Amino acid sequence: MRHVLFDADGVLQDIPGGWYAAMEPYLGERTREFMHRTWKDELPMLAGQGDYMPLLAATLAEYGVETPVDVVYQDVWHRIDRIDESFAIVEQLRRHGYGVHLGTNQEKYRGGHMRTTLGYDAIFDVSCYSCDLGAAKPNPAFFTEAARRIAADPSTILFIDDNPDNVESARSVGFPAELWDFTQGHDTLITLLANHGIEVTPAYQR
């Protein structure tokens, strides 16, 4: 195992309070209805097809939200907390000589925020954003293209994700893959890595 490919949301980063809580000030009791509608609308954009912002603006207007779309987007979609313990493991893997990569479903605006404002381009060796790859997880094409960009055989790339469908898809094209999210604790992640021969020291032992 020479590489680790990490998912973002739920693994490396968190939306404080969750998506619904972030959107509730704008939509109240219609929040869940709206979010499920806009997530469905967003699906083609995750694969790089179309522009999400005008579509989101139209849906907000339909739901009677008068706040400009860029303000809502920044308040909700940019509400991201990096999980320090996860990034400490990323850094330790890099020091140990592993390739460390990002594999995430994002449309171009949120992906751009992660690349620049959150500084992910400087942290990961290869960044695989679905909107750039032209396929979104769990489409196996996402993983095939990720392996091509990493320039490694899938069998040498361990994939970590919090969605079981994504994990199974990765395995179907030859990736070793593990299901994990940050609520399980980072000791569990360290154990999963060790099961694949990747040794990481827990923070409290450093």
UniProtKB/TrEMBL annotation:
NCBIfam families attached to this UniProt entry: HAD-SF-IA-v3
InterPro entries xrefs: HAD-like_sf, HAD-SF_hydro_IA, HAD_sf
Signal peptide residues on this chain, from the entry's feature table = none
What's this protein's name? HAD family hydrolase
Q: Does the keyword Hydrolase apply?
A: yes
Molecular-function GO term, any one: hydrolase activity
Q: What species was this sequence derived from?
A: Kribbella pittospori
Arranged from A to Z, the UniProt key words for this protein are: Hydrolase
